[in-house]
What we know:
The complex is a heterodimer of chains A (381) and B (298).
Chain A: H1 2-24, E1 31-38, H2 45-64, E2 72-79, H3 84-96, E3 102-104, H4 109-121, E4 126-128, E5 143-145, H5 150-164, E6 169-175, H6 179-194, E7 198-205, H7 213-221, E8 226-229, H8 233-245, E9 252-254, H9 268-271, E10 276-279, H10 288-301, H11 307-326, H12 331-339, E11 344-346, E12 349-351, E13 363-369, E14 372-379
Parallel strand pairs in A: 1-2, 1-3, 3-4, 4-5, 6-7, 6-8, 8-9, 9-10
Antiparallel strand pairs in A: 10-13, 11-12, 13-14
Chain B: H1 2-32, H2 39-57, H3 64-90, H4 98-120, E1 125-126, E2 135-138, E3 141-144, H5 145-167, H6 169-179, H7 181-186, H8 191-216, E4 219-220, H9 226-239, H10 244-265, H11 270-284
Antiparallel strand pairs in B: 1-4, 2-3
Helix pairs in contact in B: 1-5, 1-8, 1-9, 1-10, 2-3, 2-4, 2-8, 2-9, 3-8, 5-6, 5-8, 6-8, 9-10, 9-11, 10-11
Amino acid sequence: MKSIHKFIIPVIAIVAGFLFFQSCSKQGTDEILIGEYASLTGSEATFGQSSHNGLVLAVEEINSKGGLLGKKIKLVTEDNQGKPSETQTVVQKLINRDKVVAVIGEVASSRSKAGAPICQSSKIPMITPASTNPEVTSIGDYIFRVCFIDPFQATVMSKFALNSMKVKKVALLIDQKNAYSTGLADNFRKVFTEMGGEIVEEQKYSNGDKDFKAQLTAIKAKNPEAVFIPGYYTDVNLISIQAREIGLTVPLFGSDGWESEKLTEGKAKDALEGSFFSTHVSSDDPSPQIQGYIKKYREKYGKEPDAMSFLAYDAGMILFDAIKRAGDTSGEKIKNELAKTKDYQGVTGIITINEQRNAVKPAVVLEVKDGKFVYKETIAP
Amino acid sequence: MSEFIQQLINGLSLGSIYALIALGYTMVYGILKFINFAHGEVFMLGAFFGYYLARAFGVAEPSITMALVILLLTMAGTAITGMIIEKLAYKPLRNSSKLTVLITAIGVSLFLQYTGQLIFGADPKSFPTIIENTSFNILGATIGTNQIVVLVSAVLLMYLLRLIVFKTKKGIAIRAVSNNMTAASLMGININNIISFTFAIGSSLAGAAGILYSINYPSIDPLMGLLPGLKAFIAAVLGGIGNFPGAVVGGVLIGLVETFTVGYLSPTYRDAIAFAILILILLVKPTGLFGKKDIEKV
Lengths: 381, 298
């Protein structure tokens, strides 16, 4: 008898739990639900946290102006813990259980590529704020982005290396598990050598590695003038420290995956001094859109925004704009209006969605100075 | 040539950390004949103890004394943790089958990983600088203070362990228990105390390894113990599990092989090569490099 009780009680608890959540997920009809998936935890947690903060600002702003189509916007956020497998689960949940009308996410290209096919097959529009890998939007006509793509970013950094850093012999250190990193490296290799540069060494690592000394030693042996690291900030932080430790003192440069306040944490503050990376927007830009956004962000969160939050804010805003023009929340109508987005004045610049559903925008190069990111130059498409 | 020496230094400092962790596996195996899979998590806890201690002390100016204090406190902390784990999870199962204890160990490991995510947070934390880093040149290769600290502390700790095991009364008791638990108990040795003591020593070594690892690779997260734990386990098997010098040699070998694989072949094989070694050693010489039937177990 006792063992039966042991068995029955958990079963009742589980059933009760299901019923409870079922009743919770019933939604009011005076709200438009927007889904967001982001890496709020995990190794690139600041990507998710920043983009979430930016998106929340956009939602609050539209709601304070009376919402859309007479309804309030409600944001449903899911944490994918920075894992592609978890991403598929949470995107399924957003679409099938929460019944969101559109989805915003992710920063990392690998995770956007995991979420996009589900949005595409469910005919739910998805906008990625900051995934730069070209393949993300080629998944289907429901997938959009508000940032530039990697072939352009690679051109920017090739030009910058040759013209501003004056380096010709460059080594690559690539995150082999990461679509963003490998894609960017492929483009950089092609463009940089076409422009007359030389790749003297290529080494690979896997996102999450702690020991990079073997790769860096091999790079050091080839005497490059600079090292291009298209990776994410957590890894770059450790790489820079270990590079200096083994005596590799040449400049490091990279891409928008570096953009995080955690990039220069600890010893990396000194190790990365004088390094460069390309990104979407600079806080030093005096334009009223950017300074206005920074002020709003500071008031709400008490810290400085990074590029991911700017982009997520814009992603939210062009989505709301499209819903307003569509006058309806059906996926197909929103998608059609998103594709027509033209000359929209966002905080990150003027956004026009092209035929490949990408935004065409200039890139900025920032320099790491005393742990802060200082504007260096703008490179137009 | 200088590249080779540099890789050698990289490999040695990684390998000596593996060796420290491997000693804990080997000690527990020697005495209880089971693999304590939660050992990698004790290593992780060591790193986090160090992180919070360093923040509590406020290491504005890193110094050797400070580092030493943090190291010793962490070792004490993980030693206590190790004893608690043994008391709560393994002691009640002392007379159960080895498989039960093994599965419990995996459970403890997962418990610590995910409780760690809950308490410490899942995102990686930057380990504070507790030792000022200066670099020296040796034959064209660069060796940093922290690599020297890792190598020196690892060797000192291993020597200390050797003293404890071979020169003290407790050490003799440990060897006696590992040789024959029943006979040792009949000779008046308190088995529970000795097992507890073994866990304390092994866990304090893992804690020290956690600190040394974080000095070298200053990014820590609750899942960081998994791979180094497995590598150290392979190192212990490679050297002959239960064998004390074997664990050290195994650890250093795995560190070197890994570094050279990444440096000269491809980082893709970094983890594969360690497990390939495990499979190979189990096929060719299951007792490990130093494992013999009559060898004294620690």
